[in-house]
Specification:
The protein is α/β, with parallel strands linked by helices. The protein has a single domain, classed as 3-Layer(aba) Sandwich (Rossmann fold). The protein is built from seven helices and ten strands. The strands form two sheets. An eight-stranded mixed beta sheet has the order 1-3-6-7-2-8-10-9, with helices on both faces. A two-stranded antiparallel sheet has the order 4-5. β4 and β5 form a beta hairpin. α2 packs across α4.
């Protein structure tokens, strides 16, 4: 199994905090959601993640180098997010889910929220898209009901989100996955905005104004597309020939 190192930059108290996981998958909804939360809630970087199976790249923001997988948080708001600019290979799903749940348990966090897209082509989408949720425990399912988020009755959730739900079920830890129909290839900032609205309903301790995300959707999509193009060669290099 892949080894993932946690690099700590600052001391922090995340007792009873909510973790929101944002490793990219369908339509790259997750990084749009997480980047918006970081900016809107003014979250501070506290840790980074590294592995020999991650692409060998450094993301540069405000003239500062950053690891391609990072953790941001606010002690005051009790919110913590995991962000990545690369899409992890399927072989990394379980190791990443174990790192996230271990981090949550060690820091006595209360809930993990994962965001995911359901791969759907535009012509198959009928009417307004609805965010649905899946909870690992009865507590989570009750929380989804209170937040008026309909629950997915049946389906398949893969990647880090699916592995997190399984870890939550195994250890009795609260994990909620929020899902929405999204096109697999293009950026889908509109779908991301609906996920942010659902997070706002799910977490009453924070208030998020989603209107700017709707207005800046295309701009955010273009920024992420540019970063993805730059990171693509290194991302391919990080996958061993066995998994190509």
């Amino acid at each position: 199994m892949s080894e993932i190192e946690l690099i700590k930059f600052k001391e922090f108290d995340l007792n009873d905090a909510v973790i929101i996981e944002g490793f990219p998958s369908v339509g790259l909804i997750s990084p749009i959601v997480i980047n918006y939360l970081i900016a809107t809630l003014n979250l501070d970087q506290i840790c980074a993640l590294d592995s020999n199976d991650f692409p060998p790249v450094s993301m540069v923001y405000a003239a500062k180098p950053k690891f391609p997988a990072r953790i941001y948080a606010s002690e005051k708001l009790k919110v913590c997010v995991f962000l990545s600019e690369f899409s992890p290979h399927s072989k990394l799903a379980r190791p990443l889910s174990k790192v996230i749940t271990s981090f949550a348990s060690t820091n006595k966090c209360s809930l993990i929220v994962s965001t995911e897209g359901i791969p759907t082509h535009q012509e198959e989408i009928k009417g307004e898209r609805v965010v649905r949720g899946v909870g690992s425990t009865s507590r989570c399912r009750e929380r989804l009901n209170r937040s008026q988020i309909p629950q997915l009755d049946r389906g398949i959730i893969s990647g880090v989100s699916g592995a997190l739900l399984n870890e939550g079920r195994r250890h009795g830890f609260d994990v909620i996955c929020l899902l929405i129909e999204a096109e697999p290839q293009p950026m889908d900032a509109m779908a991301a905005a609906k996920i942010v609205e659902a997070i706002d309903r799910l977490l009453p301790q924070i208030k998020i104004d989603v209107k700017p995300l709707y207005k800046r959707a295309k701009q955010i999509e273009e920024q992420l597309k540019r970063l993805r193009r730059q990171a693509k060669p290194a991302e391919s290099e990080a996958i061993s020939p066995t998994y190509r």
